[in-house]
Amino acid sequence: MVAFNDTLFASFRIIKNSQPISKYCESGCSFSNPNVIHYSQTSYLLPLFVIVFDLFVQILNVLFIISRKYLKNGSFFAMLFIMSLVIIIRSLIVILSYISTAFDLGFSVSYAMYADFFSNFFSLPIIFLMSLNRYLCFVSNYFNEMLFERNRFVIPVLVSISISGLATFGSITSSQIKRAFYNYVGFVDYNTVPGFKTSIARVFYIFPLGSTICYILLFLHLKQQSKLVMMSTRNVEQKVFAQLLVTAILYGLMSIFIEAILFLDGVLDNYQVVSLISILNIINYLPGISLPLMLMLSTFKFGKKPKQIAIKDIANSTTASILNK
Prior knowledge:
Elements: H1 12-17, H2 34-43, H3 45-67, H4 75-103, H5 109-139, H6 141-147, H7 154-175, E1 177-182, E2 186-191, H8 197-203, H9 206-223, H10 232-264, H11 270-283, H12 286-302, H13 311-316, H14 321-324
Antiparallel strand pairs: 1-2
Helix pairs in contact: 3-4, 3-12, 4-5, 5-6, 5-7, 5-9, 5-10, 7-8, 9-10, 10-11, 10-12
């Protein structure tokens, strides 16, 4: 479903032509209307399948980190573990809102809206922190120790949680955002007043940009080194960082896609805008799925034990001092 800064574009021409199943569905909706069932097959069920798959991947990632005991090895996997937990909680709340909406159980969809907003906001700074951690492992072991090691990563994570919570509250309250289920679209977040939702969301664009800059700077740094990634542990670390880059780029592309819909909202007809929102409802969760899925697949791809792929060095990067000599 639509979340983050895609809170339905203050466009009531969509609302006018797409009637909700029940008024704003704030206390649950009934699917007794036969005209709704046909459209819900794509706008309702497909996003739900993506959310369930997201939940499955995040649970696997949590079990993977615990079973390999990676939490003891450094801050990177600890931050990834926290991100997965947040997404799991979000997914469970959203799935509950789907069930409540389908069977009219009275669970307010506003809870899922808050969970969606917070999770999407939080994913951006936590991805940046993981990228910064990887960058500092190569460039400055001293600053990496200061910011991330010996449980110091808790402070930047708490800061990320705080700013994400403030962004969520500020966006929803200032713009009076509500969530509803509409024919042709599915769940949609819309605002009744402009507020600060768009401005707040655009501020968070700096995090995927920052992650990309970290990768570029790391590439330039390694290019200048005479001892350029000759160890297998270095190759694995590069792959971890490349997966972070892919995730950051996906978040960046999502932001561009959202901005494009905002820009074209007054140009496209209702059907075209609704189609774009339906697509956005599905792909909105893909960036959060990508990182844990790629990390797990890359590990299984090697077919080696944790000690053989030196995963401990990925987490704490003690060998980073080699490049600093």
